[in-house]
Specification:
This protein is an alpha/beta fold. The chain is built from 10 helices and 13 strands. The strands form 3 sheets. The protein has a 5-stranded mixed beta sheet, with helices on both faces.
């Protein structure tokens, strides 16, 4: 089937989201030179709300309006940061992920105006972040630091840092690179030091299931190893049924022989309890690997831990 003449792409209207759309447009142009793309920006509940996400549908607050535009036929393709797409429930009925772009850096970065690394920050330093995942892990590794709530897009957070509302920030390496601000990074944390969120560094391209033309066109952008890693990670989160206030972290890795492994951790918000599981796929398919790692965590008490966190 020939590619559509026009593909309308819906996305959040933040600078980072629009930069992500430009990557998709470039890859589509390379794969299908005759296709014209048009951007349909929307402002989501998550972008407007600066409080606790649990009060506005959790991570779904970043996807609801985008999903609605796609389902209503106002757009043909949605671009999502997979880490922001809830995995405890299926995608909206009638939609599917047609492609996952090749994964970017999954690591977290420290931004400190004086160029200090995380380990050199003085006791009492204020770290700007609203991520329960980051807060829990810092409580384990750097209990002498203090986390202060920071919401908003990356540019807004950098502006808050510049105005003195925190001493340092934790942000995604991939996000800073997407908006051209890798220059502000003072320290990059290993996945072992700061386990990343499910779907870190992955852009997912969502289409309506009945739009075969767009699905065929977009599928040329799919990166098979990233799809396998993302499938394992999202199945892990689906089985755990984690909510937006539960500190869950994990990442799959594709190894030289093509096999994948999956490491995952579940924390209490104060970091005092840490559950850890790590398995290799071997003959398992990615979804089975995700299920197996989730079951290993459930056997350690993950269900009680997650259910015990208010949300």
């Amino acid at each position: 089937m020939s590619a559509p003449e026009l593909i309308r792409i819906v996305s959040r209207d933040s600078p980072m989201a629009l930069a992500q759309v430009e990557r998709v447009r470039a890859e589509l142009a390379a794969a299908h030179p005759g296709v014209v793309t048009e951007v349909v920006p929307v402002k989501t509940t998550g972008d407007r709300w600066m409080g606790d996400l649990a009060q506005v549908e959790g991570k779904g607050a970043f996807t609801k309006e985008v999903d609605a535009a796609l389902l209503a036929g106002h757009a043909d393709l949605a671009v999502h940061c997979v880490k922001d797409v809830p995995a405890d429930r299926p995608l909206p009925a009638g939609t599917t992920f047609a492609a996952f772009l090749e994964r970017d850096d999954i690591r977290d970065a420290l931004v400190h105006p004086g160029g200090l690394t995380l380990d050199r920050l003085p006791a009492g330093a204020r770290i700007g972040t609203s991520s329960v995942r980051r807060v829990a892990q810092l409580a384990v590794s750097h209990p002498q630091l203090r986390c202060v709530p920071f919401r908003g897009n990356a540019n807004r957070r950098l502006a808050k840092l510049a105005s003195g509302e925190a001493d340092a920030l934790l942000l995604a390496v991939s996000g800073l690179r997407r908006i051209g601000r890798a220059d502000v990074i003072s320290d990059i944390l290993t996945p072992e030091a700061m386990c990343p969120p499910i779907g870190a560094g992955v852009l997912g391209l969502q289409c309506r299931e009945d739009d075969i033309g767009t699905i065929d066109a977009v599928s040329a952008l799919d990166h098979a190893p990233t799809r396998r890693e993302t499938t394992a990670e999202r199945m892990l989160l689906h089985v755990l049924q984690g909510h937006c206030n539960s500190p869950i972290a994990g990442y799959a890795t594709t190894h030289g022989n093509g096999d994948i492994s999956l490491r995952a951790r579940v924390f209490t918000p104060d970091g005092k309890t840490v559950l850890d599981a790590h398995e290799w796929a071997g003959p398992l398919d990615p979804a089975t690997l995700g299920t197996s790692v989730a079951v290993a965590l459930l056997r350690q008490g993950a269900r009680e831990l997650i259910d015990g966190i208010p949300h």
